[in-house]
Amino acid sequence: MSKPGRYWHHLEDGRIQCDVCPRYCSLHEGQRGLCFVRKREDNQMILDTYGRSSGFCIDPIEKKPLNHFFPGTPILSFGTAGCNLTCKFCQNWDISKSRETDRLMDQASPEKIARVAKKEKCLSVAYTYNDPVIFLEYAVDIAQACKELGIYSVAVTAGYITAEARPEFYQHMDAANVDLKGFTESFYKKLCGGQLKPVLETLKYLKEETDVWFEITTLLIPGQNDSEKELEEMTQWVVENLGHEVPMHFTAFHPDWKMTNLPRTPALTLLRAREIALKNGVHYVYVGNVHDKSGSSTYCHHCGQILIGRDWYVLSDWNLSSTGTCTQCGTPCLGKFEKSPGSWGSRRKSVRMSPYLL
Prior knowledge:
Elements: E1 3-4, E2 8-10, E3 16-18, E4 26-27, E5 38-41, E6 44-47, E7 52-53, E8 55-60, E9 74-79, H1 93-96, E10 106-107, H2 110-119, E11 124-127, H3 136-148, E12 152-157, H4 166-171, E13 175-179, H5 185-192, H6 197-209, E14 213-220, H7 228-242, E15 248-252, H8 267-279, E16 285-288, H9 293-296, E17 298-299, E18 306-311, E19 314-318, E20 349-351
Parallel strand pairs: 9-11, 11-12, 12-13, 13-14, 14-15, 15-16
Antiparallel strand pairs: 1-6, 2-3, 3-4, 5-6, 7-10, 8-9, 8-20, 17-18, 18-19
Helix pairs in contact: 2-3, 7-8
């Protein structure tokens, strides 16, 4: 299914320019942007994956990863195909790098997705697997349908979006996990085919201009973005520009896509990154893609009490009051919390839209 896209304009040479992401692809009739899903057709921009998905499943919210947004609750997750970055280390390359539109096997209207989420008792819907920025119109329509039913919307994104498109996209999101892939322009150019600056602008926009709850994830790749200098600069920038309270996740790389020649990230690298972030004033720092209960749990930054214990995606300790404060010293823990944790655990449930007659 196709739908007219927004954020584009005509150029003097007859092409049209896509203004959704900082690539600013300029297209002749019939051409597609690098993301593959935004296409010039009949002298306008269209989104040709509207209403189609590469799959739906119910995950724990911590898998996004979001540790401070209704912990323990289930989230209906889905993506489409394509991406506006070209990360050589992509962990979802079979979806994000796909040029096969026939892999979009499951069809669903925004209203149906919202109703299925409600029926399955999901508190939220996640736009994930590939970047929702490239299917902005579909994501926004789903978010609006979800809001009518009291369902939250979560963007799992690289934050690679223009200043023109940011306001509409994030206006409809309740939470986001932003993938800060590295902290040098050379890393973004060499390994991602993009730029660092727009991502930093997105993070500052989220902090200064929105009420979106957001957390940051960095996949640490041995010898590429894991130096002590880069981690020092990144975490200092986060504290200075976003504050102490934005949770950071450092996750382990595994060889994939076009970077199968590198080793997995040692657990010690993740722990070192966590120590650097805590030293520089980040209050909540997590490690991921490894089994580390201590590094996955939430602690009070004032008294050190464990607030939320996590063993992979299973919650254990819960020492938050009904108002989200430490039960021992009363210090607030920033985030969005219910009075008690969810109990979804580590389950993963595949969902097909077609059987639902809603």
